[in-house]
Amino acid sequence: MVLTSQRRDVLNRRVRLFVAATITYNVIEAVVALTEGARVSSTALIGFGLDSVIEVSSAAAVAWQFSAKDPEAREKAALRVIAFSFFALAAYVTVESIRALVGFGEARHSTVGIVLAAASLAIMPVLSWAQRRAGRELGSASAVADSKQTLLCTYLSAVLLAGLLVNTLFGWSWADPIAALVIAAIAVREGMNAWKGESCCGPGLTSGVDVIGDDACGCCEH
């Protein structure tokens, strides 16, 4: 299906709205997580807060792209920022996980952290789904990549929540860093996909030509 200029404008505005919502929530998330993490000496909470900072950079890259009259012209640069954000996230999570496994610091119980992780676990999948749907229809690889970064926050929220709960209930401090290493591997994969996703098969980037074949960026997945 070929997008009309009116529909493309609607989708552009929709992506900007979702990105603004993601940035706003992540700023709040970062402040709460970093403050509480420092208070209770939780490397998991601090890592989660820094992840939120990285996600803001990804969302800001997409916001910058879609603020232009021709968003496609900024597509590649936005994808590079998103890819580097994924790699930075993976590197930090890996380092902090190893530090946690070797016994660096002992986190205390955090009710605030548990509530924050649960809230993110509920909110982030909705934001990710909405942005990915608009990005696929528009044919924007960067919007889809940013939605995957938002979805990754859901996984990190689950890891954080599990780690905080296990630490509170059983005192098993090793569960969180093990799961976080899996998240780091996922982040590396998504970063590589964003780095390679120079274009998308949707009508927004194909000038009305329907593309049939491999969809490297994942825009056309259903």
UniProtKB/TrEMBL annotation:
Membrane-spanning regions, if any? 15-34, 46-66, 78-95, 107-130, 151-175
Compartment(s) of residence? Cytoplasmic vesicle, Secretory vesicle, Synaptic vesicle membrane; Early endosome membrane
Where is the major localization of this protein?
Answer: membrane
Give the record's membrane topology: Multi-pass membrane protein
Record flagged with keyword Ribosomal protein = no
- Domain Cation efflux protein transmembrane stretches: 26-192
**Keyword terms, alphabetized:** Cytoplasmic vesicle, Endosome, Membrane, Synapse, Transmembrane, Transmembrane helix, Zinc
Q: Name one Pfam family in it.
A: Cation_efflux
One cellular component term from this protein's GO annotations in UniProt: cytoplasmic vesicle
Which family does the record assign?
Belongs to the TMEM163 family.
The entry's protein name is: Cation efflux protein transmembrane domain-containing protein
